[in-house]
Amino acid sequence: MESAARAWPHPGGAAFHPGQPGGASAVHVATGAVTELQSHWTTSLSSIQGPVFSPDGTRIAFCAMDDFDHTHSTYAVDAAGGKNLQVLTDQAVTPTDWLNR
């Protein structure tokens, strides 16, 4: 695992970690349990940047590159297990905060 300086924490006790190339992990801070998020993704992603947790900690938004067509997009995924990968925008936007609309 890369250095802890590259982990992005959520106040609810989880942290996002970029993990291996093309992947990402959620880490439960108190127990150290690691959940590989990319195992449910049908799209291979790399260059993951700027993860932001939703206020309730259930989703993570981030910018990444699609390894197939080399486009950058902004995505959201379930924090507990990596399911429901969703493209939020087809532009490379590095999230800085979560807005509910």
From TrEMBL:
Gene source species: Streptomyces finlayi
Location of the region described as Disordered in the Swiss-Prot/TrEMBL record: 1-24
InterPro entries xref list: 6-blade_b-propeller_TolB-like, WD40
High-level lineage: Bacteria, Bacillati, Actinomycetota, Actinomycetes, Kitasatosporales
Database matches in Gene3D superfamilies: TolB, C-terminal domain
Protein name: Dipeptidylpeptidase IV N-terminal domain-containing protein
